[in-house]
Write a structure and sequence with these properties.
0% strand; mainly alpha
């Protein structure tokens, strides 16, 4: 599910880019820790504004955040084209 993939991406970036706990990162960007926890675990939807706040805290753009998703879509699309060529 996309919501889980987004949450996993946020957690991965929070740890790798800031090395902050959920609580410290949430405080830094003005979010409640439990909200961030639910987002990272894929249990909470978030608005594009909240995602932008998270990206600002990570010092990345929304484009940078979504880049791996775009690469996955392109790869999946290419795989489907290759499958059709085999027939």
């Amino acid at each position: 599910m996309l919501i889980v993939r987004i949450g996993n991406r946020i957690k991965e970036l929070r740890i790798s880019r800031t090395n902050l706990s959920q609580e410290d990162f949430a405080n830094m960007i003005g979010l409640d820790r439990t909200y961030l926890s639910r987002v990272e675990s894929g249990k909470q939807n978030l608005t594009i504004e909240k995602l932008n706040d998270i990206c600002n805290g990570l010092h990345i753009t929304l484009n940078d955040f979504f880049n791996p998703f775009n690469e996955s879509i392109i790869s999946d699309s290419q795989d489907k084209k290759d499958e059709k060529k085999e027939y």
